[in-house]
Amino acid sequence: MHKRRLPKWILFLVAVLVVGISFPALVAAVGDDAPPLPPAKQAIEDAYEQRRSQAPAVRKDPETIRRVKDEFTRAHPPVSQQPWPAGIFEGPDAPFPSSEVKIVNRWVEVADGRNVVVYAGSDAQDPEQGVLIFQVYSSDSLALLEGGRRASAEKAGPLRIIAANNGRLTIKPERGSPVEFDVQSRRFVPTESVERRPR
Q1: Are residues 18 and 63 in the same domain?
Q2: Which domain holds residue 43?
Q3: Is residue 35 domain-resident?
Q4: Using CA atoms, how far apart are residues 199 and 192, in angstroms rounded to an integer?
Q5: Which residue, 91, 85, 86, 84, is CA-closest to 160?
Q6: What is the pLDDT along the chain (199 residues), one digit of tens a residue?
Q7: Which of 49, 75, 101 delimits the end of a domain?
Q8: Can you list the alpha helix ranges (DSSP code H) found in the chain?
Q9: How many domains does the chain have?
């Protein structure tokens, strides 16, 4: 003779009812009989509650907001920004995805209180196309003020910055003759004397 088993869903329902009924009673019992806090911890809790009850309601008028911001700024002055190192730096360090551009090197200078960076390299999709990317940041380096990208006239491989003189960068493609880039005008310029100029 087979014993008839109860369906699983009935067992599940019974278990849910038992837990549902007993859990609130268990929580209430534990809450009533909870052991007291150690004296040191109770003193901290009491002090916190006292400060909370005595705290004035926060006003959100513009004058209060300005005053709170000023107090915070005085208490937490901004970290002074270190000056950017100037010169030509080798390597691919750049704030661009490598899927867009392959950087060879960069030139950095502080001009008129602004941080100027020119990156040299090639287009990631077309490695024969040389590119320069320039960016101008605020003196605190927090705001990008200007930026742009320039492609070389000839597809001769990645570009490399090899010299800098008074805001003019000498750029050498992987194959071919050097060209110049005028940082102020943000464009390539004629280079009739680049090859002959002593370094």
Answers
A1: yes
A2: 8-75
A3: yes
A4: 15
A5: 91
A6: 556 666 777 777 677 666 666 666 655 555 555 678 888 888 888 888 887 777 766 656 778 777 777 777 766 665 556 677 899 999 988 888 889 999 999 999 988 888 999 999 999 999 999 999 999 988 877 788 999 999 999 999 999 999 999 889 999 999 989 999 999 899 998 765 544 444 4
A7: 75
A8: 8-32, 39-54, 62-75
A9: 2
